TrEMBL record:
Pfam families: Ribosomal_S19. The keyword Signal does not apply. It comes from Candidatus Yonathbacteria bacterium RIFCSPLOWO2_01_FULL_43_27. Residues 104-113 have a biased composition (Basic and acidic residues). Residues 94-113 are annotated as: Disordered. The lineage of its organism: Bacteria, Candidatus Yonathiibacteriota. GO terms for molecular function: rRNA binding; structural constituent of ribosome. This is Small ribosomal subunit protein uS19.
Length: 113
C-alpha cells in the first residue's frame, strides 16, 4: 500500500541534513540505516551505504531510482542456489562436458600445426 499523497513522501530528515549543501562528486559514502526513506531528486549522484542488517552496501543513486526506497537496492537475504544432490550431479556433468570440449578443441589446434 502506498503512502497518502496528502502526507507526501517519507524522506529521513537526517539524510537530507547530511546531503545539504554538498556535491555528489566529492562527497564520500553516506552511511544510513533509513531503508524506508524514499529517494528524492536531490539525492541523484550521491553514494549511500545502505545497511542490510550485517553490512553497509554501496548504492549510487541514479535518476531511474527516484521515487523508490533505499532498501530496495540493498538486499537483506543472500541467495545461494536451488537444488541439492541432483543439482550437484547436473553441475558436475556440465563441467565435464565443458572440459571435454576444451580438450578436443586443444587437440584440433595441435593437429593443425
Amino acid at each position: 500500500m502506498t503512502r497518502s499523497l496528502k502526507k507526501g513522501p517519507f524522506i529521513d530528515p537526517r539524510l537530507l541534513k547530511k546531503i545539504e549543501g554538498k556535491t555528489a562528486t566529492n562527497t564520500p559514502m553516506i552511511k544510513t540505516w533509513a531503508r524506508a526513506s524514499q529517494i528524492s531528486p536531490d539525492m541523484v549522484g550521491f553514494l549511500f551505504g545502505v545497511y542490510n542488517g550485517k553490512t553497509h552496501i554501496e548504492v549510487r543513486v541514479s535518476e531511474e531510482m527516484v521515487g523508490h526506497r533505499l532498501g530496495e537496492f540493498s538486499p537483506t537475504k543472500k541467495f545461494l542456489r536451488h537444488g541439492g544432490k541432483m543439482q550437484k550431479e547436473l553441475e558436475a556433468a556440465k563441467k565435464g562436458s565443458e572440459l571435454a570440449a576444451a580438450k578436443s578443441a586443444k587437440e584440433a589446434t595441435a593437429a593443425k600445426k
